[in-house]
Amino acid sequence: MHIFILSISLLAAVNAMSGGRAVTSSEQFPFFVTLTTPILCGGTIISLDPAWIITAAHCIEDSTSGSLIGYGSREFSKQTYATIKQIVLHPLYVSNKQLETQVYASNRTDIVPYDIGLLQLTKPLPQNEYTDRIPLLADQEIATLETMGMGYTGYQQPHADLLQYTECNSSRTGVLHDDNFNHSIILAHSEANLCHGDSGSPLVTKLYGSNSYYLAGILNRILNAYDPDPNQVSCPFHQSESTLFVNAFVKPYVHIKWIMNSTQLSKEALLNNVYKPVASHASSQRRSLLMFISCLLLL
């Protein structure tokens, strides 16, 4: 996948993981999905019924309805595929085409918070130990951070066959001075280097005293990085020997009103860690109404 690399010097639109650890069970991150066309990316299930995926906008700006996402397995080759019905980009997202034609300066940090998008699938997803949704994190205090992906595993290396993950630490770096960016983005260092193919992947956390994961961010940039060969991207290089990669994750909760409006999901449905299928609830209401009418007819 194409990675935005700008040095803030450079902000790179992200992609995969070099030095990550292989996930040992498909039950570990059942909310993770893989996007393979038009570019390799990660994504996250935020609703099963109706089925909605959240990812980075640059991952799906060239996608079309009928494209596929993979889910339900830590192994790339064993994932089950589902069909995309609808693609929704954030209305303030600035596309790659606009950046390439220099309508916008490529190192502007104020455009990064809007690199977020949604996918609706044609059918509901099943809920089981290998497939599940994850609630969005509000502004609670967090304990640990983890991210995962199936991106490239090294410079000029293939993408991962097994889902990789790594722990992250929030960064206090002072390279960004845009208030909207600072409010909307989580900056984090990771033990493993993220690469092309990891864009759109989730940053997750467990609240203190909880074993449930919450979605804190969506990967959309790598700071202080560059591609040595922009025509054959795999994993980026450090901008200089003295700089560390800094990963930028947009906070979904900052955009919750847009997500609610786009998906017609309630705030409770997006934040609650107890799954209540929206469509099934509506069906239940219809069944109750029909039973009530039947009783009236019998009377």
From TrEMBL:
| Any Pfam family the entry gives | Trypsin
Q: Which UniProt keywords apply?
A: Disulfide bond, Signal
Q: Name one GO molecular function term.
A: serine-type endopeptidase activity
Q: Which SUPFAM superfamilies match?
A: Trypsin-like serine proteases
PROSITE patterns tied to this protein: TRYPSIN_DOM (PS50240), TRYPSIN_HIS (PS00134)
**Gene Ontology biological process terms in this record:** proteolysis
Statement: the UniProt record of this protein carries the keyword Signal:
yes
* Residue intervals of the Peptidase S1 domain: 17-264
InterPro entries attached here?
Peptidase_S1_PA (IPR009003), Peptidase_S1_PA_chymotrypsin (IPR043504), Peptidase_S1A (IPR001314), Ser/Thr_Proteases_Immune/Dev (IPR051487), Trypsin_dom (IPR001254), TRYPSIN_HIS (IPR018114)
As given in the record, the signal peptide range reads: 1-16
Family annotation (Gene3D superfamilies)? Trypsin-like serine proteases
PANTHER family, alphabetized: TRYPTASE-RELATED
Q: What is this protein called?
A: Peptidase S1 domain-containing protein
Q: Which organism is it from?
A: Rhizopus stolonifer (Rhizopus nigricans)
